[in-house]
Amino acid sequence: MTGPRVPGVLKGLATTARTALRPAHTSEYPDVPPDLPPRSRGVIALLEENCTSCMLCARECPDWCIHIDSHKETVPAPAPGGRERQRNVLDRFAIDFSLCMYCGICIEVCPFDALFWSPQFEYAETDIRDLLHEKERLGGWMASVPAPPALDERAAPPAEETAASRPARGGPRGGAGRTPPARPPRTVRPRVVESEDPS
Ligand code: SF4
Ligand code: SF4
């Protein structure tokens, strides 16, 4: 064995003396709310107007804890002679947080940006059935969703902006106000005329 033999009780006292001088890291929740990172997974918020009832989130949820009901509605033609259209109307959207495992798949797969993480976590219930949040309650969580981070200055411009700056159909080619590049002069090849065989 190497080093001096120190009885365990002296080691313990030394550790106590060392840590007693350090500042405490006690979390004083609920008097002091925790400073959570902006991407904390507290609860899922629903932006109802963005939801098209496509069912993608409900199908991908590994826990089957998303419940969606909807019906079809006929939208009249916008102009005489036009076609009527059908659209889905959301009747029910609910997430059972007693089953949810906070994997975030539903938020990732939603093609219409209708679901968001909110860092709000204070929704514990004494009755497990109250953890089933209907769309009104899910919509209420939107107020606590943090604003998205600013775009990276060096990132490529958004596709929507690029598309909006393109000229309308029939306009000048190469973008508004831009002169198309000059073409290089065309090389004309001499034509070879084959003489007829006199034989
Ligand atoms: S976070 Fe995961 S488990 Fe929870 S509702 Fe979304 S897909 Fe389902
Ligand atoms: S939340 Fe998104 S993925 Fe789910 S039904 Fe609505 S639009 Fe579809």
TrEMBL record:
The protein's predominant localisation is membrane
> One GO term of the cellular component aspect?
plasma membrane
UniProt KW NAD keyword:
yes
Instruction: Give the way it sits in the membrane.
Output: Peripheral membrane protein
Q: What is the organism of origin for this protein?
A: Phycicoccus avicenniae
Q: Start and end of every 4Fe-4S ferredoxin-type domain?
A: 42-71, 91-120
Q: Which domain of life is it from?
A: Bacteria
Q: Which cofactor does it need?
A: [4Fe-4S] cluster
Substrates-to-products reaction catalysed: a quinone + NADH + 5 H(+)(in) = a quinol + NAD(+) + 4 H(+)(out)
Annotated HAMAP family: NDH1_NuoI
The record's comment on protein family reads:
Belongs to the complex I 23 kDa subunit family.
**What keywords does the record list, in alphabetical order?**
4Fe-4S, Cell membrane, Iron, Iron-sulfur, Membrane, Metal-binding, NAD, Quinone, Repeat, Translocase, Ubiquinone
Segments traversing the membrane: none
Q: Identify the stretch(es) annotated as Disordered.
A: 143-199
Gene encoding this polypeptide?
Answer: nuoI
Query: What does the annotation say about its assembly with partners?
Result: NDH-1 is composed of 14 different subunits. Subunits NuoA, H, J, K, L, M, N constitute the membrane sector of the complex.
Q: Where does [4Fe-4S] cluster 2 bind?
A: 61, 100, 103, 106
Per the record, where are the segments of Low complexity compositional bias?
156-170
Give EC number(s), comma-separated: 7.1.1.-
Which amino acids does the record list as binding [4Fe-4S] cluster 1? 51, 54, 57, 110
Which top class of enzyme applies to this chain? translocase
Q: Relate the protein's function as given in its record.
A: NDH-1 shuttles electrons from NADH, via FMN and iron-sulfur (Fe-S) centers, to quinones in the respiratory chain. The immediate electron acceptor for the enzyme in this species is believed to be ubiquinone. Couples the redox reaction to proton translocation (for every two electrons transferred, four hydrogen ions are translocated across the cytoplasmic membrane), and thus conserves the redox energy in a proton gradient.
What is the recorded name of this protein? NADH-quinone oxidoreductase subunit I
User: What does the note under cofactor report?
Assistant: Binds 2 [4Fe-4S] clusters per subunit.
